[in-house]
Design brief:
Number of helices: 2
Strand content: 25-35%
Structural class: alpha/beta
Oligomer: single chain
Order of helices and strands: EEEEHEHE
Number of domains: 1
CATH superfamily: Nucleotide-binding domain of ferredoxin-NADP reductase (FNR) module
Distance between the termini: 38 Å
Low-confidence stretches: 1-7, 9-24
Largest sheet: 4 strands, mixed
Number of strands: 6
Mean pLDDT: 77
CATH topology: Rossmann fold
Length: about 100
Amino acid sequence: MGRRGTTDSGCEARSGPAISGRAIGLSSLVATGSGIGLFLSILEQAALAIRDKRAFTFFYCARTPGDLPCEARINELAALLDLTYRPLLSRPTLECG
């Protein structure tokens, strides 16, 4: 997932995908643009792992509804997982320009 280390202050440092809450069984995923590929892979692997009972919330940021990729596959994964999909749009309507 990512590399772990310690900062000078003694806090845990982590690099890698934006996944949070693993200790409590909740994972939040946030992606934009081509970043969706990494998170689809994570969700695909979770769907294959029958014992994966984590709840996922997936936020994908795009300009318009037409810029949202892979929605059919995300909906398929939502049927297999405890997955909430939340697309976020910066220009949800034509009036927003």
